[in-house]
Specification:
Length: 190
Amino acid sequence: MRHAPLLLIVLLAGGCSARTPAFGTAHPVAAPVLATRAPQAEVDEADDETDQQAWQSIRAALGKSGDFRDGVLSFAFPRDDLEVTIQGNDTPVAAGIASEFRFYRCPCGMINVIGQFVVADYESNDVLDALREGRVEIASVGPLLLHERPRLMLIRFQGENHHGGKLAKTLRTALSWTGRERMAPQKLDH
C-alpha cells in the first residue's frame, strides 16, 4: 500500500485515464488542470484594428492613457480604497496592491492582454464571472499575501481578441465589481 496516498490523489483529481502511467514507472503523474478555459470567441477577422485604433479604443474603455513601452500598453489600478495591514502593520498601496493589465499585439495579429486583479476576497467571484463572460481565460486564483487584513486574492488572466476595445471593456466591467465603484448606488431601470 505504499502508493495509496498517490492513488487517492489521482482518483480525486478525476480518476485514472489510459494515459496515466502505471505506478512504479519513471513517468510523473499529470497534475489536475485548474485553469478555466473560456470558449473561443466568435470574431470577424475582416474588422482587424490598426495598432493606433487598438490602443485608442483600449485607453477609451479603461479611462486612462496608460504607459506605452516596447510595444506594450500597461495600466495599473492601485487599490487605494483598501487599508491593508500585514500582522497589524500598515502596508502601502505602492508595495504592489494594484490590478495591472498589459496589452500587446501578437505576431498572429490579435490583441493580447495579460494581467492580474488584486481583489478583496468578497469581490473575487464577481470579478471571475465578469472575466469569463467576456471570454477571458483565468490562469490562477490565490492569496496575494499572508496574514493580511482584509484578505486579498490575486486573479491572474490572459485574453485575446481582434479588437482591443472589447478586451478592455471586459476588464472595465470586472473592475466595476471592486472598490468604491462596487459600493456605489446602482441605477435602477424601471
